[in-house]
Amino acid sequence: MNTRMRRAAFAVAAGAMAVSLAACGSAKESGGGSKTTDSAKKGDAIKVGLLLPENQTARYEKFDRPLIEKKVKELTNGKAQVVYANAKQDASTQNQQVDTMITNKVDVLIVDAVDTAAIKSSVQKAKDAGIPVVAYDRLAQGPISAYTSFDNETVGKTQGEALLKALGSKAKSGKIVMMNGSITDPNAAQFKKGAHEVLDGKVNVGKEYDTKDWKPENANSNMQAAISALGKKNIVGVYSANDGMAGGIITALKAAGISVPVTGQDAELAGVQRIVSGDQYMSVYKPYAPEADAAAEMAVALAQGKSLDSIAKDKVDSPTTKQVPTVILPVTSLTKDNIKDTVVKDGVYTVADICTSQYKAACAKLGLK
Ligand code: BGC
User: Is the minimum distance from the CB of 242 to ligand 1 under 6 angstroms?
Assistant: First the structure.
């Protein structure tokens, strides 16, 4: 996280969402989207392009896509059209998808980049074609007009703090293994940084990996390698950057007969169920709806040539673009103790979704009914 982002995140954490950070730097290439006469005339019948990065992590197809589509419809009296494509973790596919969206004359693009550097030229192309780009969840490089995400360094800190709590006095009695996300995703670097800030000096990191493409199967094979290298008796816990990878990691741990605390992120149904059964210690709950809503609101406003001032209270700098209007959202640590107060309360899952026959007994013990 660069200094300005950290400030932005801090301002949010401090509940000072209205604090303007506009004075933090000189604008090289200002975000905010230029109002073209064309887009200013646009009413509700707009075309929104939505590009998501992968489909192995459950959130994208299950939550982000439907929630964004729903909000766009709501904001446009059902008249807008959302055109969708998933890059399945391939950066060049995603660049082609941007080309297709430009050919299809979308009015605005919402992009969650597979590789935030590789998307840069495509963002430029879209801008040149008069199509503003909203960076979704990952801070895409290039002249984006808006950005929304969570406080990603805090995600890493939350994971680290939970792992320390779970380890208690055993924190230094063995080694932990750290499984970070993909190096093409700047969020992964922020999760990793936040986690290290909390864990360094308090645990011994035996092995650490940047997981190619965020893939559960890669996390699984890295975990197997870590177990062979460190010895199964010496591993006391695993930092996993998300739930998808935690799934692969826990499979490897179980196969070796190891039961230790494992972290996660995304509050995936499978992750929540592993928390219920005790296989996974925690996840980070990032409410999808507020992020999807922010992206939809900014996209519709940009397509209609309206100002983002009332929606995006923060500003962040990307490696290429300064002062991007931004909405940053807070996160919550999810453990067996607050399943009801988080994902169930917010309607992400019903108790029936979580407590299928396999989990009935464990759910009853937690008072989940
Ligand atoms: C997202 C996470 C997700 C990961 C893998 C990150 O950019 O913030 O929610 O688990 O990508 O897709």
Answer: yes
User: Which residues contact residue 275 at a Cβ distance below 8 angstroms, ignoring those fewer than 6 apart?
Assistant: 281, 282, 283, 334, 335, 336, 339
The residue ranges of every structural domain in the chain are 4-151+287-329, 152-285+333-366
Residue nearest to atom 7 of ligand 1 (CA): 187
Instruction: Kindly compute the dihedral angle of the four CA atoms of residues 271, 199, 232, 206, in this order, to the nearest 10 degrees.
Output: 130
Domain 4-151+287-329 of CATH type 2.40.50.100: no
Pick the CATH number of 152-285+333-366 from 3.30.70.980, 3.40.50.2300, 1.10.10.10, 3.40.30.10: 3.40.50.2300
* Cα distance from N-terminal residue to C-terminal residue, the chain: 40
For residue 54, the ligand 1 atom closest to its alpha carbon is: 12
The sheet carrying 235-240 orders its strands as 204-210, 175-180, 235-240
Contacts of 91 (CB under 8 A, 6+ apart): 113, 114, 115, 118, 119, 184
Total residues found in the chain within this entry: 369
CA dihedral 256, 258, 259, 261 (to 10 degrees): -100
Ligand 1 closest atom vs CA 60: 12
Q: Is 161 in the pocket of ligand 1 (CB under 6 A)?
A: no
Q: Which helix (H) or strand (E) holds 316?
A: strand 314-316
Pairing of strands 314-316, 47-52: unpaired
Which residues, 6 or more positions from 182, have their beta carbon under 8 angstroms from its beta carbon? 188, 210, 211, 212, 213, 214
**Running along the chain, 369 residues long, what does each successive block of 10 average in pLDDT?**
44 38 39 46 91 96 98 98 98 98 98 98 98 98 98 98 98 98 97 98 98 98 98 98 98 98 98 98 97 98 97 97 98 98 97 98 96
Do the domains spanning 4-151+287-329 and 152-285+333-366 agree at the CATH topology level? yes
